[in-house]
Design brief:
Helix content is 33%, strand content 19%. The chain is an alpha/beta fold and 242 residues long. The protein has a nine-stranded mixed β-sheet.
Amino acid sequence: MTPHRRPSDSLLRVDLHTHTRYSLDAVTSPEELVERAQEASLDRIAVTDHGEIEGALQAQALDPARIIIGEEIRCRCRTELIGLFLSERIPMRLELEEVVERIRDQGGVIYAPHPYAYAWRPLTRARRAIAVADILEGFNARAFLPVWNAAAQRTSRERQIPYGAGSDAHFGWEIGRAFTEMPYFNCATGFKRVAAAARPIGIRVTHPMAHVASAGLKAGRRLIGRRAGVRIARGRRAPSAA
């Protein structure tokens, strides 16, 4: 197990965007996520499943100091936001303003994931996310065209919004492909205080076939769920996907 670094040690390594099997398009168990994070020497890792926090809660029970509870939420306008440092699940497809309010009410942080990926998404979604974000995702390891991450970093500099990095891992082997180096923090308030010093580190970009695998996984699970007449359930409730 990788020991947690003390405040006096070097910068923390933080993956701000990962998924467990509680996202329909991911397979990583909370146990594997924690193990992979330890192997990758990540000091913090945000678990940000689509419309669900159960995977994050299970991972946090295994490694409380390392896990940040998050959720990737698709708003009614189809803009996606990530709430970090959450204590309660936020339903999908609420109005963007309500999602923002619910994250703020929990004392959370608004993270704008992959704002310019992918080519089929209209720029209006990026603009809506950037307008409310505390921090942008300047490097997403699944954003396989360099122009997408470059655009996010350029916007961060122009708008003077901090930016970080996330692996957007849906499979265990993706964890650690990107992370954010930043000064020590142990809560949302501390995170916001040091976010301006965050530095995204992109180790490698994930091959586009990972998207194909995730899409196939989600489609298969939805088909199975329709045939059974129920949503696929794991744990206490059915996981959601964007």
